[in-house]
Specification:
It is a single chain. The chain has 169 residues and is mainly alpha-helical. It has a domain at 1-82. It is 61% helix and 8% strand. It has helices at residues 7-13, 16-37, 42-53, 55-81, 86-90, 94-107, 153-168, and strands spanning 111-114, 126-130, 133-137. A 3-stranded antiparallel β-sheet has the order 1-2-3, covered by helices on one side. Strand 2 (126-130) and strand 3 (133-137) form a beta hairpin. Helix 1 packs parallel to helix 4 and helix 2 runs antiparallel to helix 3 (42-53). The two termini are 15 Å apart.
């Protein structure tokens, strides 16, 4: 079972411009519209003033998450652009490989949700969405046995893929 993400982590996973839009909405809501939400009593208006004075802090947090998103996007794009062949792909860590494949699908018009990382991903590395279709991507390493044939890893991987597909769909 996956852990829930903090709101700012979710914003950092969105496109960077989404974080900036959310920052603008948060600022307007907390700075100006909060007075209409709280009751007109002195206590309610005091709370509204306090929240209004902290609007810049919430806005700054959303802008920070948008900045993280922009840096991630830049790194992913450069990772794919600098690949020169199979040798450079083999030299990648598994985290970089996951980002590379995700960016390749993004460039083909897919919306990509990266499920891997340091947390257990339930057997799903990427969830792809395009034109109302949802697909999952999983990869693993197959090891050969001493005789040069494929070992039991192939069956285990097939079972994991089947179980992951059942969880996602």
């Amino acid at each position: 079972m996956s852990r829930r993400k903090h709101l700012l982590h979710e914003v950092a996973d969105l496109p960077w411009w989404s974080g900036l839009i959310l920052a603008g909405f948060a600022y307007v809501l907390l700075r100006f519209m909060v007075f209409a939400i709280f009751p007109p009593s002195p206590a309610g208006q005091g709370i509204a003033r306090a929240v209004s004075n902290l609007a810049w802090l919430v806005t700054l947090a959303f802008v920070g998450a948008a900045l993280v998103s922009a840096v991630r996007q830049f790194v992913r794009e450069r990772l794919l652009d600098k690949q020169s062949g199979l040798a450079s792909i083999r030299a990648l860590s598994w985290q970089e490989f996951e980002q590379l494949v995700g960016e390749a699908f993004r460039r083909q018009g897919y919306q990509v949700e990266e499920r891997g990382g340091s947390q257990p991903d339930g057997g799903v590395d990427l969830v792809l969405r395009k034109a109302g279709t949802k697909s999952v991507v999983q990869w693993g390493t197959l090891r050969c046995d001493d005789r040069g044939g494929r070992g039991r890893g192939n069956r285990r991987l097939q079972r994991e893929i089947h179980e992951a597909r059942a969880r996602v769909f």
